[in-house]
Design goal:
Elements lengths: L8 E3 H4 L7 H15 L3 E2 L13 H4 L4 E5 L3 E6 L2 E6 L6 E4 L8 H8 L8 E6 L14 E4 L4 E2 L6 H10 L4 E6 L2 E7 L10
Parallel strand pairs: 2-11
Antiparallel strand pairs: 1-6, 3-9, 3-10, 4-5, 4-7, 5-6, 7-8, 10-11
Length: about 190
């Protein structure tokens, strides 16, 4: 049996510059992945049309909406595969060890997702993650922001109706290429994951 690679735990904000020394590289990575370090806020859209200050653009129909996927957070950065723990904005990230049996389900999700070669944030979903709320037959990686919601009415009643008629955990609102805020189906009185 080969020697096991020592496991690294890295602060999320430091991943962008892992193993790189040049200022040019650091600047490019900060620009490319800076949005991953920004805060993504949970907002409440009220029945009277109110929304948290600074997020009025959501109700005006600006930006776009995507499904929030219920899985285990992971990322590919500079071709290196990480799994996350803790809060998205301040969590800790560990490199996935392809030889470690403890990471086998993350490896399985990666192997089952051949189109997953781009750097970015993902959710590992399927049989071995979060109780498999989607009833999948195997494990996969789902890229953040890939499942766009078309024709979402931007009002309390419109969002509530969307949750009533669609089996999604939450809705993420994007603007200028960034995940800015989200709402959860539980905010509208609907259960998730049961």
């Amino acid at each position: 049996m080969g020697k096991r690679k020592e496991r690294k735990t890295v602060d999320y904000l430091k991943i962008c510059v892992l193993h790189k020394k040049t200022e040019k590289f650091r600047k490019a990575k900060k620009e490319r992945f800076g949005r991953m370090a920004k805060s993504v806020k949970r907002i409440i859209v009220g029945s009277a049309g109110e929304v948290d200050p600074g997020f009025e653009w959501v109700l005006k129909g600006e930006g776009y909406a995507t499904e929030m996927v219920d899985g285990e957070r992971c990322a590919i950065i500079d071709g290196v595969y990480y799994k996350g723990s803790g809060d998205l904005n301040s969590g800790v990230w560990d490199e996935v060890d392809f030889a470690d049996p403890k990471d086998r389900w993350f490896v399985n999700a990666y192997d089952n997702t051949p189109w997953c070669v781009e750097d970015g944030l993902y959710e590992a979903v399927g049989v071995h993650f979060k109780g498999n709320p989607y009833g999948l037959d195997d494990d996969f990686l789902e890229r953040h922001g890939r499942i766009r919601i078309r024709h979402l009415p931007r009002s309390y009643s419109g969002i509530k109706e969307y949750f009533r008629t669609h089996n999604v955990m939450g809705i993420v609102f994007w603007k200028d290429g960034d995940e800015r805020c989200y709402v959860m189906r539980t905010d509208y009185g609907f259960d998730w994951g049961k």
